[in-house]
Design a protein that fits this description.
Layout lengths: L1 H16 L2 E5 L4 E9 L3 E5 L8 E4 L3 E5 L5 E3 L2 H13 L5 E6 L7 E9 L5 E10 L25 E12 L5 E14 L5 E14 L6 E16 L11 E14 L1
Antiparallel strand pairs: 1-2, 1-5, 2-3, 3-4, 5-6, 7-8, 7-14, 8-9, 9-10, 10-11, 11-12, 12-13, 13-14
Length: about 250
């Protein structure tokens, strides 16, 4: 019986010593059990009975020694390659653009867009300065009678928000779709106050890590008139089908 106790004690001692070792670049050494390894990561836990598994990047290690005494060395060259790959995956998350074609419809529009980290979703906040372009940018027509439409002076504003969901793996151009909401007073439409809700879709041109970006989009939905100085020609408190087309040119940072 005494021999059996001695054998069990020796076996228990060997089990305690049968641990894998991780040698870190900062000089630390960890003992435990390697669960598995992948191309870039060592999966490691502190004890055989532990439920918590740590992911140790190979870039942080000099070498690994398993319980059998086998040694695996990780070179510095591979560590630099992993770092370079991480740098290439960084995206520019902010964009500021202008819609140049809108000026012909009496709008000077600036758009700020904030992208998620992987550039798959964008939250855009447009602000338009509206004016009546008739008689300023182009002729108001040959009708000089008393029934001619009165041109408006002054400016007003339209604001809103877009949520753009970008799809596809093409790095240069991506299709997007999402809701488009606007509220404000359109001076080109005779000073009508309204809000609109549309489904917008279009294409974004420009790589995610490059500074220049373009958007071409189309929207379909409804507009709700809140107040209308146009009288019977455009009734207030009514909803109408609504369409929009926009081109945006901007820069990212």
């Amino acid at each position: 019986m005494q021999k059996l106790y001695i054998f069990i004690f020796l076996l228990f001692t060997l089990c305690l010593n049968a641990q894998d070792k991780l040698f870190f670049k900062n000089g630390k050494i960890k003992k435990g059990f390697i669960v598995s390894t992948s191309t870039d990561v060592v999966y490691f836990k502190n004890s055989d009975t532990s439920l918590q598994i740590f992911q140790i990047p190979k870039s942080e290690l000099i070498l690994v020694e398993n319980y059998k005494g086998d040694v695996f060395i990780y070179s510095k060259k591979k560590s630099r390659q992993i770092k370079d790959t991480t740098q290439l995956s960084t995206f520019k998350q902010n964009a500021l653009g202008i819609q140049p074609l809108g000026i012909f419809a009496g709008r000077v529009t600036f758009v700020y867009e904030r992208f998620t980290k992987n550039n798959s979703v964008g939250f855009a906040f447009p602000l338009s300065l509206t004016f009546d372009p008739s008689g300023k940018l182009y002729s108001s027509g040959i009708d000089t009678s008393g029934s001619a439409v009165k041109r408006l002076s002054g400016v007003n504003f339209i604001g809103g928000v877009d949520v753009n969901f970008y799809m596809g793996k093409n790095e240069t151009s991506k299709f997007f779709v999402g809701p488009r909401i606007r509220y404000g007073t359109d001076m080109f439409m005779e000073g009508i106050e309204a809000y609109s809700a549309q489904t917008q879709f279009g294409w974004k041109y420009g790589k995610d890590n490059k500074p220049f970006i373009q958007h071409l989009s189309f929207g379909f939905g409804v507009v709700r008139i809140l107040s209308s100085p146009a009288g019977a020609r455009i009734s207030s408190k009514q909803s109408y089908p609504w369409f929009s087309m926009n081109y945006r040119l901007g820069i990212k940072w």
